[in-house]
Structures are given as structure tokens and as C-alpha cells.
What does this fold into?
Amino acid sequence: MEVKTSLLDNMIGVGDMVLLEPLSEESFIENLNKRFDHNEIYTYIGSVVISMNPYKSLPIYTAEKVEEYRNRNFYELSPHIFALADEAYRSLRDQDKDQCILITGESGAGKTEASKFVMSYVAAVCGKGQEVNKVKEQLLQSNPVLEAFGNAKTMRNDNSSRFGKYMDIEFDFKGDPLGGVISNYLLEKSRVVKQPRGERNFHVFYQLLSGASDDMLKKLKLDRDFSKYNYLSLDSATVNGLDDAASFRTVRNAMQIVGFMEDEVQSVLELVAAVLKLGNIEFKPESRVNGFDESRVKDKNDLKEMCELLGIEQSVLERAFSFRTVEAKMEKVSTTLNVAQAYYARDALAKNLYSRLFSWLVNRINESIKAQTKKRKKVMGVLDIYGFEIFEDNSFEQFIINYCNEKLQQIFIELTLREEQEEYIREGIEWTNIEYFNNAIICDLIENNKNGILAMLDEECLRPGTVTDETFLDKLNTVCAEHQHFESRLSKNSKFLTDHSLPHNCFRIQHYAGKVLYRVEGFVDKNNDLLYRDLSQAMYKANHSLIKLLFPEGNPAKVNLKRPPTAGFQFRASVGTLMKNLLTKNPNYIRCIKPNDKKAAHIFTDSLVCHQVRYLGLMENVRVRRAGYAFRQVYESCLERYKMLCKQTWPHWRGPAREGVEVLLTDLQVPAEEFAYGRSKIFIRNPRTLFFLEEKRRQCLEDLAALIQKIYRGWKCRTHFLLLKKSQVVVSAWYRRFAQQKKYQKIRCSALVVQSFIRGWKARKLLRELKHKKRCEEAVTTISAYWHGTQARRELKRLKEEARRKHAIAVIWAYWLGLKVRREYRKFFRANAGKKIYDFTIQRIMQKYFLGLKKTMPSMSPVDKSWPARPYGFLDGTHQELRRVFHLWRCKKYRSQFTEEKKATYEEKLAASELFKDKKALYPSSVGQPFKGDYVEITKNPKYQKLNSLVEDKVLLADVVSKINRANGKGAPRIFLLTKKSLVLADQKTGQVKASVPLLDLSSVSVSTQSDGFFALKLKEGAMSAAKGDFLLSSDRLIEIITKLHCTGAASADRNHINIDISDEFLVQFKQDKVCVKFIQGTPKNGNGVACKRKNNRLLEVSVPSP
Ligand SMILES: Nc1ncnc2c1ncn2[C@@H]1O[C@H](COP(=O)(O)OP(=O)(O)O)[C@@H](O)[C@H]1O
Ligand SMILES: [Mg+2]
It folds into this structure.
């Protein structure tokens, strides 16, 4: 929602002077002061903006501010120059009304700044686009150029515009800028040759000298030093805060943007330089024959340089400074110039040169910014013109300026009143005559064609005979004496004869803004604005296109003997055109006021402001504005603003706004004469009434605020409560749900329990029934089984009975038969019966024995020694035989399960048993040990690699044995290898073969009966390996070694068994000797091991521990 605001919101003082109550000069100034202290530099008088120069930059011209004021109603926001610019622009764009913005105020009041703000605001809000932006840029950049040439530092303003400027900005139907036209008024050209104390010449001179490059200065024949130039005052050559060099660059850049050609810029600068040079030309008197002094140029150097610059023939110009040609009726008369005249001529030339250059610049800019279309354009004019000037010493310039301001005031009054009037008519309000001072009479005093002051002056200037300022004053005294606003000491009006404030050489005019005393001195001269023809012709002869262009009257071909129009005349004409122009437009006023003379922020000098308020006619302005109705507002906004003051209109009024306002005002009992109803606006006569409404509104707003607060608090509490309620419902719902869930779960659990109990009970019942049924079935089965059993047993019994009976019968029968037979055959019985009974009995016993044996057979294990006891003594032999046979059979069965390998092992074991059982005490300990054969694993041991390679056959046995030293009986470890064909003895550590004996060379092996491991390998005599004799060795695995040796020998068919001798005394062949090895039982000294000792040459004794 758009927030409707009003100027009346947060006002400091009053934002619109129309609302000032009571209205007086003091209250007016006090209001300005109050607002100024709060940095509120803008205040309205209706639609007029008063602008106080803040002399400091305020943050109120930002892009945000532009946006804030864009498309808002004039009175909607606090007073601002943007509001005025926006109003003007929108009125131009939307209502097709040409606008003019009239900015007035005294020098330094902020007019030029204001015009720039207006232009920049319009540039910011109007259309955008490449072409449009270029136009905008050119329009904005025309300012720096004109300011450089037309502004100067004055006592009042460091950047004072020394010319009046009116700029028309042209727009198309959309409101996009198309171009512009600038008009300039009355450049203060006297400044070129002379500046008041503390002031400067036009900026451009200083800018050129500070900012131009050395090269350029050389070209322009200039020196950077200001002091070298007579026309430049040195007092304040540099201004604080002004950087002339930078400005020069800005100006050159601006000229480029505006569209100046490089050579044009150069020409312009040459002219500027020429003016400086001109000022340095000095004259000296030279006596002539006729007694008159003739002026001569003192030092021709500057003249020469200037002529070079402008392409002027030096002699021509030099002559023009010494002679003056007067042409009258085809006659030429040449008179000499004295020094003073020469200086006058020089200065006149300089002033003319510069002012014409300035006009040319304006025209040139106009050419660039001219709209490129012939279509109808909308126009917004901005007038930045000097305000009313009242100095102590006022001259022709002030007279002209004040005349201009009188004219402006006039159109202001006219337009304001006209507008006021038009608005009343538009709104259908009865027109009440407004009393105001009309300054037309003053304008008439000045501009009247017949007896106006300007006309008088022209007349004086053109009159033949001696003309002086005094004669001009005399004329005025006679002609204007009766005028109410003209005052002069010597006028016919005796009133002033004794007025000592009026000097004799002055006249005074009562301007609308106050009385101004003008000194007549210089009026005639300034009005004439004389430039000797010789000079203009000299200029025209210049070989410089721009100079030629500036002095067209110097063209000898177009000699015009008519005097050129006077300055006054020219100005009157241009003011006339301007006024005509302004009258066709919708005016917008900005009245600038400077708060102090010190160019300082925060200082508000009452007297100074009062003075300005007076001469700007601001009080007048307020009065005119208030003459009818002080305040007006469209019904809608009025109703919107005050609707809360009446019950019927609050909060909404459904009907038309006007009726709403009527109801409102009636309800508030506002006196009927205090307001009038227009068509679209309500008009309020007195500010008091408005303030009454405002005060009521303020009070009401407080109540409303309380009401809003109340409603808001109520709403807040209610919402809070509702929220709590809602939450409570939610919580209780959840809780109930939870409780129900719990209850349900409990019920469900109980149901389950009950269910399970019932099911259990049912199941048990069923089980019981089933069990009962089963038992019944079982009982039936059992009973039937028993029954069948009984039946069967009974049957069996019966059958047995029958069988017994039959048997008994048979026995009886047999007995009886026997008896019968015996009775019959008693006589034969004794001879055969005995043998038969015996056989039968024996047979019976044997039968019983075998059947019994069958039941008590021992296990199939060959080592099972058990055997049932014999039942009968006479079966002893049979019994033993059966045991043997069974054992053999069982051994055979056992053997038949053997693998080949196991068979060989057992065969070896068997061989060992055959060889050693009961023959050697060592044997029993060997029975439990399996014959592994290889204990050394030479194939795997890398140490014995070589040994392994030497042994061709498969190794049957490999073990470490002790070789008994033949000399001392001590043992040394040797590896003993047995293959199919030979046996090998090798060193245990190195694996080096010590002896290799083919088995064929082995004749026999001798061992003892004891538990020792000694054995002697006896070799066949004459065999190759027998050179060293037999081997005496010892090993714990003697049984295995000997058995393997024995079996290996037996395995090959080409060999006989190796004999095994077992005795405790045998001979061994040691080299040549035969030594007896004898085994004795005894305890050797070192533990219970076997000790071997060489007793003598023939005896080696081995003591074996007794078992
Ligand atoms: N609105 C403003 N904000 C800040 N400074 C301002 C403002 N208006 C004027 N000034 C200051 O006052 C000086 C004079 O203003 P200027 O517009 O040149 O005066 P005028 O054209 O009326 O002689 C400016 O150079 C500037 O420093
Ligand atoms: Mg200015």
C-alpha cells in the first residue's frame, strides 16, 4: 500500500509560508531561520520554492532523493527543489504545458546551483537511451563551458555568473529531451578590463594560464605568470577550493562533448590570449605640431604578438590606436587620439572582443544542442538571472538588472494572480478581488517608449551637441519629476529638494523591492557602448576566421553609417522577447536567498535575509497567495487526511469525496466563511483553520494509535489465547489418544492372556482327551496284545502240552518200546549196546564242546592272548591245537589286510625277531620302535648334497652311528648309509664319504648278546674295501641296522645271506691285526653308559651295564 504523506507531516516551522500565522516579516524570517537551522533550506510559498543557500553540501540531492520525489504530488513530501522540478516536468509531459523555471535571487544566493539541480533532476527522470543520453550530456556539459567564460569570483560568490542565462530545453511528446536553446543577457564585460578589489576576471583567463600545457602556452605566446598581465587582478588570482588547472581540463572535455572542433577551440583560446595581450599594450603621448598630444604605443612587443596571434597587420591596429576616422555624409574626417582615448579604445576593443566571443560561444553551443527535428516540441525554460541589486553605488548595470527584475516581478504577479484566478474559475469559486501592489507603473517609468528612462537615455545619446551624464539627469528631472516612483534632488518635485540622502548626481527609483539610488555617471557611455570604427575594421581585416566573424560591421563593403543600437535599447528588446516568451509558459519560481555575506554555513544574518525577503517581494508573494484562500487540497487527499475526525467518515467514506469533506467540516463545526467548496478542491481561507484541523488530527491520531494499540493488543492476546486453546485441544487429543492406546493395549494384553489361558485350557483338555483316546487305543492294543499273547501262550501251552504229551507218549512209547525191546532183546543187548552208548555220549560231548567254543571265541587281534578254558581234560590237546590254528588263521587274516609297504616293514620286524629274539638283550627294547630307515634325510639336508649325489641307489637306511676308534675304543659320529648294493660311511659334519663298501664284500656281522649297540662289519678277505680292515660301529638302532643289512643281502638273488654272529666275544680284523672284542658286564665308571676300552693289542673290552 502506498503511504500517503503530506507536506504537513513532521514540519519544522511551516513548510508553506502561506500557512504562517500570524503573517509578518518577523514571523516570516523566523520561520526561515528555524528551518535553515534544521537544514531545511527549502520552503514553499504555495507553489513557489524559497531556497536558502546552505553553503555546505547537503545529502538531499542523491539518486534516492530523486526517486523519492519522482511522480509524487507537490505537497506530498517536504519542500524540495526536486518537487518543483518534478511538478514542472510532469506537467510538461502529461499536460502538454510548456514550462519555465524562474530562478531569481542575488548574487551568491544559489541560482546557478538551483538551475543545475533542476536540469540534473529532469535529466535523471526523463527518458533514457543512447541518443537521449547524448543530448542530455550535451545540455549538461554546456554549463562548464559557459561558466568558464561567463563566471568569475566576486566578493559575494566565488563562482558568480556574470551574465543572465535563459535555457530552453526541448522535449518530444514522450518527454525525452531533444535539444535546447540558450539565450544570454548582458555579460558584465567591464570585468574584462577592470575588476573590483578582491574579485577576479573571468575564470577562463586563469584556467588557461594554469591548465594549458607549456606547448600550448608557447603557441599562444603566453606566460604562465598571472602577474605579467594587466587585465588580471592579482588580489585573488587563486581561489580557495577552485582548481583552475583541473577546471581547464574539464572545460576542454566539455567543449569536446558539446561538439566544438579542435580548431574552433584553438581559435577561442587565441582570442582569450589576444585579450590578455591587448591589456598589456600601453600608450605614451607624443606632441604634435598642432599642440595636441597624440598617443603612441609604448612597447610594441605585445602589440606585435597579439597581431601575430590574430593575423592582424600590426600597422593597421597601431594606427587605430592613434587615429579615429569619423564618417559623415560621405566625408571622412580623421582625428588623433590622445592617450586617454587610446586606453579607452583599447579597453573597448577588449570588452567587445570578449563579449562577442562569449555570444559566439553561446551561439555555437546552440548550434550543437539544437533539436534535430522540426516537429512540435515541448519546452521547459530555465532562467538563471541576476536578482535585484542594491549597492551603495549603483550604476547603469544595476539599473538594467533591476529593470529586468521589475519585469520578472510583473509577470510573476500577473501569472500568479492569473493562475489563482484561473483556479478559482476552474473550481467554480466566487472570485474575490485581491489587493496587491502592481509594479507595472515602475516598469512603465523605465521602459515607456515616450518618456521612459531608457528612452530618455537613448535620446540623449543620439542627440547632437554635447552630451553628458548630467544633461541626461537634467532631462530625467524634467520628464519624470511627477512620477510617483522617481526621486531626484533637482526634479521639479519640491519634496526632495531638502532630501540629503539624495546626492545631486543621482536619481532614485522606488522599485517594488525597495528604493535604489543610481549615480548617473557612465550611463551615457555605457549605453553608447562605443567601439571606434577603425578598430572594428582593423579586426575585420584580421586573417583569423573567428575574429572576422565577430566584427561584421568592420566590413568596409557594408559600411553602416547608422549608429548601432544602444545597450539599453538592446537590453530592453531582449527583455521584451524574454517576457513574451515567459508569458506563454507555465511559470515555476525558485527564489534564492543567501543567509549571510560570509559564504559560511550555519550563519543566518537576519538583516541580510530581511533585505532579500523584501526586494524579492516574498511577503507580497504570500499576501497575493493568501488573498483568496490560503490553502487548497483536492477532496480525496483532504478526506484521506482528516477522515478520522468524524464518525461518519471514519474509517471509510463510501460516497463521493466532496460529500465526505462536507460532512466532515459540518461535523467539526468549522465556520462556513472559512472554506469554500471547489469542483475538485476544498479551499481553506485561513491557515488557522488548517492548523485547527491538523491539531484535531494530531489528537485523533493519538487516540487512534491507542485504539490501534488496544485492538492490536486484543488481537495479539486473542490469537495467543486461541493458539493456547488450539494447542490444548491438540495436547488433550494426543493425550487421549495415548491413554486410549494404553487402555487398548492393556485390554488387548488381558484378552491375549485370557485367550491364551482358554486356549491352554482347551488344548490341555484336548490333549487329555487325545491322551485318553490314545491310552484307550493303547489299552485296546495292549489288551488285544495280551489277549493274543494269552491266546498264543495258551495255544503254545496247548501245543507244548500236546508236544509233551506226544513226546511223553513217544518217550513212554519208546520206553515202553525199549522195555518191550529190552524185554524182547535183553538177550542181545549186552553185546553191542555199550559201544553204541559210548559213541553217542562222546559225540554228544564233542558237539557240546564245539558249540560252546563257538560262543566263547576270543577277539581277532593277533596280540590277544586269551583263550577259553578247556572243559574236559581229555580235550587238552585238541584245545591247544585249536588255539594255535585259530591264532594262525587270525594272523593270516590280519596279514591279508597289509599294504606292500607295511608288509615289508613287518617282514623286516619278523626278520629282526628271527635274528635277535632271545639272542640279544637289546632286542625287546626295539620291538616297539618302528623301523623308519632314514633318520638323517640327506636328500633334504643341503649339507649332504654332495653325498647324496654320490649315492646312486635309493637309500634304505641312513643314520648316524659311532665309529669306534680301533686304537682307543672311542667313538666318532659317522653317517651310515645303506643302499641295495653297498653301504657308505661318511663324515657327519661335511658329508664327505669315508668308506664305501659293496654289500658283496661283506662276509658277516658280529654283535654281542648284551644290550649294547656294538656291531662289527666283517669284510671278505681280499676285497677292495677290506684294506683297512673290519668296521667296529655302535648304534642305538643296531637291531634295525643289522636287520636291514641282513634283509638287503638276502633280497638279491646273486648274494647269500649275510651271516649274523651273536656272541660276547668275537674277532675283528684291524688292518693286519686280529683283535678280540670282548663284552663284559659291569658298572663303568662314567654313568651307566657302555664303555669301550682297548686293553691291549689283541683285546678290546666293552663293559655293558648289567640289566
Ligand atoms: N543547494 C546548495 N547546496 C550547497 N551549496 C550551495 C547550494 N546553492 C548554492 N551553494 C553554494 O553557493 C555558491 C553560490 O551559488 P551560485 O548558484 O553560484 O549563486 P548565484 O548563481 O545565485 O550567484 C555555490 O558555489 C555553492 O558553493
Ligand atoms: Mg549564478
